[in-house]
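Review form for a predicted model. The reviewer records the input and the model, then writes brief findings.
Reviewer: anonymous (R2)
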Amino acid sequence: MKNVNVFNNTDYDINLNIYRYFLSHAVKAANIDGEVNLVFSNDDYIRGLNKQFRNKDKATDVLTFPMGEANEGGDIVISYEWVLDRYSEDKIKMTVIKLIVHSILHLQGIHHNYTEKSLKKNYKRMRELYKKILEHIKGNYNNANKKDIKKDS
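Model under review:
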C-alpha cells in the first residue's frame, strides 16, 4: 500500500479526510510509488519555500517537491490561505482537488512553462488524470462493502 500523509499546518479547520481519500486514490491511479505528503500551509510558509527553492519572494497556491525520479513520490504544499483568499466557499474543495491533480502530474515528471501551448497541454493532462482518478474511486466504491467505505471517508 502506498503511504499517503496529510498535515494541517494552519489555524484553519480543514477536513483532512476528504483530501486524504482523494490523494490516496490519485496516487494509486497515477502509479506513484513511495510516500506522498500533502501539507496545508499559510502564505508565509509557502512564500518562504518559494523564495528558498524557486528564488521567488511571493506566496503561491501550490509547490510540489518530487523525491527523485518520476513516480517516486514527494511532497505537495498547498497554501490554504491563498485558496481561501481567492475562491468562494463553494469552490474551495474543488480548487484544492485541482491543485492536488496538478501536483500529481509534477510527481509523474510532467512539467510545464507558462506559454499558452504548454498550459493547454497541462490542462488536458489534468483532465485526463482527474477522469482516471474518478474511475479509480468509482471502481473502489463499487467493489467495497459499506464498512470499508465508512472507514475510508
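Findings: The chain has one domain: 4-152.
Further findings: The beta strands are 4-8, 36-41, 62-66, 74-79.
Recommendation: see findings above.
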